Amino acid sequence: MYTIVIPVGTSRGLEAAEYVTALPDCDTDVEVVVVNVFEEFEITGEGGIVRSDELYDERDLPKSVEEVVDTLEDHGVDVTVRREHGDPVEEILAIADEVDANAIAMVGRQRSPTGKALFGSTTQRIILDADRPVTVVTDE
């Protein structure tokens, strides 16, 4: 069985699912672990401190996750969904290790080099830190 991890944010992921469904024998030889990570944060303001763990709900999946799962299941792909809380890159790579994934397939977005430097890039960090193949499809 060929195992692929697909990280899905709040609005992107469908293109990665479509990539997987185009693979030969995806309905018999491929299993997918769909991962959604609620990013850890802490905000301090006049009203006090708000921490992400106070808002995190393991069952509160974005609609984008449901769309990805539906697309994969419609093509006969075995799917498992994981919802985690923490640093997205660390959680995605940890799950890929845990399930011994053969690959990671994810959707990247166009961002200028300045934007990547200022805001970081989850996709870029995964490409650089992963010890397995990473396929990036665009959302255009």
TrEMBL record:
It comes from the Archaea. Pfam families: Usp. Residues 3-137 form the UspA domain. Belongs to the universal stress protein A family. This is Nucleotide-binding protein, UspA family. The lineage of its organism: Archaea, Methanobacteriati, Methanobacteriota, Stenosarchaea group, Halobacteria.
